[in-house]
From TrEMBL:
It is found in: Bacterial flagellum basal body. Residues 417-459 form the Flagellar basal-body/hook protein C-terminal domain. Transmembrane segments: none annotated. Keywords: Bacterial flagellum, Cell projection, Cilium, Flagellum. Residues 7-37 form the Flagellar basal body rod protein N-terminal domain. It comes from Ponticaulis profundi. This is Flagellar hook protein FlgE.
Amino acid sequence: MSINTALLSGVSGLKANSSALASVSDNIQNANTVGYKRVRNDFTAMLIEQSHVSSYNAGGVRATQSAEIADQGSIQASSTSTHLAVSGDGMFVTRLKSDDATASDQYYFTRAGQFSPDEDGFLQNTAGYYLYGWPADESGAPDTVGSTNLGSLEPVQVTGIDGIAEATSNMSISANLDASEAVSTAATTYDLATNPGVSMASGAVTPDFQTTVQIYDSLGGTRTVAMSFLKSPTANEWFAEIHAVPASAMQATGLPDGLLASGTVAFTSDGQLDMANTTLPTSLSIGASDTPVTAPAVGWAASEGLSAQTINFDFAGANTTGGITQYESASELSKSSVDGVAFGVLAQIEVDDDGNVNALFTNGLSRPIYKLPLASFANPSGLITEAGGAYSASIDAGSVILAAANQNGSGLINSYSLEGSTVDLAEEFTNLIVVQRAYSASSKIITTADEMLNELIQLKR
């Protein structure tokens, strides 16, 4: 009977608009929720096939809801370095457990990037989801474009990171040696090849000019290196020694008195360094403390506990800026510089556009500790909506594809940022009015059908 189907159609309208009201309400309530994706209502007519007769049977309506996961929310600034937002299609990979997760614990995907360390230093967002990434090593994260191997990921932990130091590997010096310096008596008999103990390093010979430079060892400690110069009887030539202060820092089985290197420094007639006739080495290798050496090799003393180290010297050359020169002016050091840094502790964590989680140290060094993947799906609308702004995989969504940020169209990761909700309040309040009116209209269908049925029943008194 058509009146009965109209009654049932009105009921379906009440159900459909009630469901739509619930999703609109959620949208409004989450207008300020980080990473929230607006839920869209789709109404579908449940038409029943009609025969060519005068009676029409109502089919009603059905409402379905789907989150508009692919929509991009606005990127908003944050003052927290571990607050992250994605510009693009990718999503963060998370789980509800950190280091205690097992193979049976599910993976979830989210755009809610308000991550901060928990009591154990694992990054967790406000909904309780832990961020996962690839652990970094010296070679960097592997090429993962197109990978589906979620098992290679680990929870991102940003505390308990060891400090870091960097040994000196390059040293430069700018100095002038006085061309008018008189040749000393010691210079006439100076010969390290036959008498290595009579040296400037030992103090047996007084240098005409000496300067010291601070370098860094493999443990971030500072070491003093002295450079001593003695004018040679040969014109435009100086004897030179490089030695450690104190000498006890070096292995006793190496060169005596902490001597690291020796040779001559030659100059052209116009005071420029003559590298072709200079024999002082421009590179110095210092062996590790646990590796005994014999002269002429040198090594750190066993008590120092240091790694091997190579230092390259830059003395410049003719017609270059800086370096060592010989002019008729007082011998003096004008500038020296070394690389390497002293030991530093963790200062803060930052994430770059490529998803590298970098540990920044108080000495200015940085080190990548993780690389964040972004997950994407062929049909993101097919994902299953979970609590806390997260989604889980489904057959409809397709297989998960992992890619590093800024690769394969995965998107960029913005640090100090959060993605805003995609809800438009003006649109939602309009939908609220429409749903309310449609609900009222459906109720009128029911009351009207009820009155008509009542009239039918009253035919028989």
